[in-house]
Design brief:
With 112 residues, the protein is an all-beta fold. Helices cover 0% and strands 44% of the residues. It has one domain: Rieske [2Fe-2S] iron-sulphur domain (Rieske Iron-sulfur Protein, 3-layer Sandwich), CATH 2.102.10. The protein binds FE2/S2 (inorganic) cluster (FES). It comes from Nitrobacter hamburgensis (strain DSM 10229 / NCIMB 13809 / X14).
């Protein structure tokens, strides 16, 4: 079932960092990222290269660098920056009254 899940206050996510959520989406971990400008993004927490934990990567601008082999993943769409290729599944996210909500679609790849 698709749902907006409240994952708590924005302040729980470090600036230019990420939090790996307790929730799993269809068996996959979910990461929420916060940029230096307080923009937030959510991706399935698996690098498209070899499933590295993107939540442990370095956030720079609107990208995250995978901690395993340094692929750079765009936070907007989960796409690896060239020359690398692949996509981490993006999930919709929003902030309502200071709390962060992540949209968990019924199926991976479904539009929010
Ligand atoms: S697993 Fe992320 S770059 Fe290799």
């Amino acid at each position: 079932m698709s749902t907006w899940k409240n994952i708590g206050p924005l302040s729980n996510i470090p600036v230019r960092g990420a939090r790996r959520l307790c929730v799993k989406h269809l068996g996959k971990p979910v990461a929420v990222f916060r940029t230096g400008e307080d923009d937030i993004f959510a991706l399935v927490d698996e690098c498209p290269h070899k499933q590295g934990p993107l939540s442990e990567g370095i956030v720079a601008g609107r990208t995250v660098s995978c901690p395993l082999h340094n692929w750079v993943i765009g936070l907007d769409d989960g796409q690896a920056l060239a020359p690398d290729q692949g996509t981490a599944q993006p999930l919709s996210v929003r902030v309502v009254e200071g709390d962060v909500y992540v949209y968990l679609p019924a199926a991976l790849g479904a539009a929010a």
